[in-house]
Amino acid sequence: MTTAATVTTTRSPGNLFRLMTPDAKKRLISNIVSSLGNGVPRRIQELQIQHFYKADPAYGEGVGKGLGLDVKALVEEPVGVGD
User: Fold this and answer.
1) Closest CA to 64 of 83, 38, 42
2) Dihedral sign computed on CA atoms, order 24, 25, 29, 30
3) What is the pLDDT of residue 11?
4) pTM of this prediction exceeds 0.70
5) Are 50 and 75 in contact, with CB atoms under 8 Å apart?
6) How many whole angstroms separate alpha carbon 76 and alpha carbon 54?
7) Which of 70, 24, 25 is nearest to 50 (CA)?
8) What is the DSSP letter of 79?
């Protein structure tokens, strides 16, 4: 279910990401991949990819690809908090 809070929390980061230059986007994605790839459990990585994808598909795909995750599968079948 999409709520006003969900729209607000994904719209602002997505808008900011779309304003970034291609080089800035690459640096952001690289920094996030470096942080999330450093011992963060896979389930947490998957949840984060879903959030990034909601903000902007290119954002989620970039981070997901960097982590070696199947973004398409994560978006089609979201990982629930209780999983």
Assistant:
1) 42
2) negative
3) 79
4) yes
5) yes
6) 12
7) 70
8) P
Q: Quick check: 50 pLDDT over 70? A: yes
The H or E element containing residue 34 is: helix 22-36
Q: How many CB atoms lie within 10 A of CB 52?
A: 25
Give the mean pLDDT of 52-57: 96
Please, what is the angle between helix 57-67 and helix 42-55, to 10°?
160
DSSP string over the chain: ---HHHHHHHHHHHHHHHHS-HHHHHHHHHHHHHHHTTT--HHHHHHHHHHHHHH-HHHHHHHHHHHT--HHHHHHSPPPTT-
Q: CA–CA separation, 62 vs 82, rounded Å?
A: 26
* Positive or negative torsion for Cα 24, 27, 31, 33: positive
C-alpha distance from residue 19 to each of 22, 55, 58 (Å)? 9, 13, 13
